[in-house]
Structures are given as structure tokens and as C-alpha cells.
Amino acid sequence: MTSAAVRPGFRATRPRAEDGTTVTSTYSALSRTVRDAGLLERAQGYYLWTLGLLTLALGGIAAGFVLLGDSWFQLLLAGALGIVLTQFAFVAHEASHRQVFASGPVNDRVGRILANAVVGISYSWWMTKHTRHHANPNRRGKDPDIAPDVVVFLEEDAATAKGFKGLINRYQGYLFFPLLTLEGLNLHVTAFRSLLTGNAVRGDLRTRLTELAIITVRLGTYVAVLFWALPLGMAFAFLGVQLAVFGVYMGASFAPNHKGMAVIPEDTSLDFLSKQVLTSRNIRGGRFMDVLMGGLNLQIEHHLFPSMPRPHLARAREIVREHCATLGLPYTETSLVRSYAIVVRYLNRVGLSARDPFDCPMFRQLRRV
Questions:
Q1: Which letter, b or e, does each residue of 109-141 get, where b requires 16 or more Cβ atoms within 10 Å of its Cβ?
Q2: Does residue 5 sit within a domain?
Q3: 361 domain-assigned
Q4: CB-based contacts of 291: which residues, under 8 Å, 6+ apart?
Q5: For the chain, first and last CA: distance in Å?
Q6: What's the pTM value of the predicted model, to 2 decimals?
Q7: Does a structural domain hold residue 13?
Q8: What are the φ and ψ backbone dihedral angles of 72, each rounded to 5 degrees?
């Protein structure tokens, strides 16, 4: 499979079940089965417990910060803070999908508090970007998650990269995880830039300004406390470790979901079920992985039923996998380590388009001869 086309096994025509029913109509039956099983009902108790435990963890980190004082053991707390903030970001993501509460406005209020005031990233920007992704995962020209950035996901984008960026793209698979150490900083910068410019952000000016004020106070207070309580070098180290852990954890949780899966041409028409299943990958690992990756490990089910609460995804997986087997629709799942190997290999393959053929030592030698 290359990023220029869908992977082997993709069918331009709609696959049919044994009785001749099309995929489009079987999705309705699948939805009824999932709904009848109660898997779309909210799991408020689960999320209240999760938020309670995360709040206790955050409080414990704050207490440890005060008690440790001028000690390099603070860096352990910085790493722990990066992990806890990522877990809060997972719940904010789930609130944006209406998974936590029955009321949409309540989900939005909770999501805004968690994203803006706790994590320090823009909820409005995230909602805008993520909604576009869910509508067209891995579709050229429509999915913002495969739009060119420091790392590129399509050969044509790699082929146009020049200079230092082109050098990065040549080896971007190997550089992917080191680059994720900067993703935490990038998310905060993107939050400010998107809210200031209004680009790719839903919501009126008042909403943007409110979010901007909350994020400014949150980040400003955090940095001020660090540099007031710790020596200069230690404060910088604490901030660097926290942002690095946050960035790597976030990126390592979202990257396995679609990278290296089918890339859909812009003009291809696909039914909803095929579009979501062919472009998504599940990660094995049971309940531990559900917590570690915030439910993102069950990406196929999450894309098919975005409002389904995290604790119900595992049961839905059994239903969806059986449904896909009946249709002959490829259903992809693998281990976490294997998924990372696939992502690295895929990014390096895309990066080949950024390489000059004269980089080949044998080619240079033959040319001289």
C-alpha cells in the first residue's frame, strides 16, 4: 500500500453480504444492533470516576511540587504532569463527541473547561479540526490530519519539500518520535494562533476571545509559578520535560489510528461504513490499553459511533468485527509496537519522494565515471 492509493483489498464497488445486501444498508442494521445492546447510552459514572481520579492525581502532583521544593526530583513530577494532562485531554476529546453527558451544551462546557483551563489548548480549534477529520478520514484534500506540516503524509507533499524541511521529510519516519517532543509546544502555539486569527475555528468572536483569555491565564499562571518556585535552570527543565512528555504521549496515542492505512482519493465515493473501517486501525491490549490510549485504541468503533462512551467500545468491537467478516470488509487491528513500526515505515516511504536521486552513492559514482 502506498499513500497514493487505497491499500490492497479496497473495493471501488460496494461489497455485499451473502444475501446481496449492500454495505450502506447493513450499516443501518449494525447501528440497530449496537443501539439495542445499550452501547450508545451514556456512562456518566465512569467519567465521573475518571475525572475524580485525574483531579486527585493533579492535586497530588501540586502537593509534591510544593513539598519537594528545590530538587531535581521535580522532573519526575513534570513527567507525571504531562501524563495527567494528556489523560484530561482524552476526556475533553470524549466530551466533544458527546460521550460523557446526555446534554450537548453540558458536554461542550465540560470540554471547554478541560481543554482550555486544564490542558491549555483551544477547544474550538480542536472541535473544528477533529470534526473535519471524522467526516473524511484519510481523504486527500479534506482530512486536516494528513495536511502537510513538518511531517508530510502524501508523496506529492514530500516531493515539493525543499531545504531543511525537505531534509526532515527524507528521514521523517525515524525522526517522528523525536519530533513529537515538540508537539506539546506546538499545540499551545496553535491554540493562540488559531484563536487570534480565527482560521479553522468555529464559534463567534466572543467565544474565541473567552477561550483566548482562559488559555492565557492558565499558561501564564503555570509558567509564573514554575519560575517563582524553582531556580531558573530547573524551571526551564521542568517545563521542557512536561511539554515533551505531553507531546509524545498525545502523538503516540493518535498516530497509530490512521497513519499507514488507506488514503482515499478526493473524487472517490465511499459509503460511510467502508470509509471509516478501511482508513482506521485498532490496537489490541484490553482494558489497560483502553485507559492508556483513552479509547483511541478502538478507533474503528470510535469512527463508526463517535458518541459511544469509552467503556462500551470493547463490546462494540466484537459486533463490528463480526459484521465486517460477514461482508468481507477488511478489519485491521494490531499490537501497539507493531503499529508504531508500520507508522515509521510508512512515513519513511512517503519521505522517499523528498529525496534527490543524486543522494544515492552508487549513482554519484557512476555519474563521475
A1: ebbbbbbbebbbbbbbbbbbbbebbeebbbbbe
A2: no
A3: no
A4: none
A5: 37
A6: 0.89
A7: no
A8: -70, -10
Q: Among candidates 353, 355, 1, which has minimal Cα distance to 158?
A: 353
The answer as to whether 365 is a domain residue is no
User: Cell match 478489519: residue?
Assistant: 331
Q: Which residues of 54-78 are buried (b: 16+ CB within 10 A; e: fewer)?
A: beebbeebeeebeeeeeeeebbebb
**Least confident piece of the model among 131-140, 187-196, 357-366:** 357-366
Looking at residue 115, its pLDDT comes to: 96
CA distances from 241 to 40, 123, 245, 260 (A): 38, 24, 6, 29
Tell me how far the alpha carbon of residue 296 is from its chain's centroid.
8
DSSP element (H, E) containing 19: none
- Nearest Cα to Cα of residue 27 among 213, 272, 359, 295: 272
**How is residue 87 written as a grid cell?**
489523560
Q: How far is CA 269 from the centre of its chain?
A: 25
Helix 104-112, helix 123-135: angle, nearest 10: 120
Residue 56 C-alpha from the chain's centroid: 25
For 98-127, the pLDDT digits (tens) are: 999 999 999 999 999 999 999 999 999 998
Overall number of domains in the chain: 1
Residues sharing a CB contact under 8 Å with residue 170, sequence separation 6 or more, in sequence order: 351, 352, 354, 355, 359
Burial of 193 per CB tally in 10 Å (0-12, 13-18, 19+):
middle
Q: In this model, does residue 23 exceed pLDDT 80?
A: no
What is the separation of C-alpha 125 from the centre of its chain, rounded to a whole number of angstroms?
Answer: 14
Domain that holds residue 172: 23-354
